User: Fold this.
Amino acid sequence: MSATYDDPALQAAYLHAAQQITQTEYLAGIREAMQGKLVAIQQALAPEYTQSLPWDELALRQQEMDRSLHPLQPLFAYLGPPATAQEGIIQIDVANVLNLPIEIIGFDIDGATFMEVDPDWIESGRDNLVDSEEGKVILRARDQDLLPALRYVRFYLPVSEILQQDSELNFMHEMDLQIATRLVGLDDVQLTVARPGYPDPFAGPLQSGSGQ
Assistant:
């Protein structure tokens, strides 16, 4: 976070550059351009200095960076009690667990209905969003050192608008609701399940490889 000054535009530029660097052809191009020179240097220094060429190490670094662009779980999401549907809303609390900004695209309901996010649905937590002139809903990057607690944004999805798209949905049962997101600056969309329960602001993000 200190390297990007909590600047969403700088963070998006970093992600865009990181995505380019993780492409197979990127490293292949560098290798093609530099292989001959590196071999010549290696041969000249061979009597006194032995150093392997960096391609295997760079390939591993490329894989690590690519994994960081595809997190297992970019956010925590909690679904409010089904009874809130009687009040005409679906309550969802979401928090960014990454040190990069995340754009919320919309909500997938029971795999049958998709609602694009509307900033008017935000009930609380607007100070945890990045200001966007384009009307996008972007969760601020998490700075764990500065603020250990997760910063949640609460949405109230209007049941009436959902029913306009799918009149057969049953809101009184535990529905399968997923939040569609992407890292700001990238195109890949990821779905995260909203789990029943109350959001814990001090819950730590899942570690890579946790299987969740």
Summary: Confidence is low (pLDDT under 50) at residues 207-212.
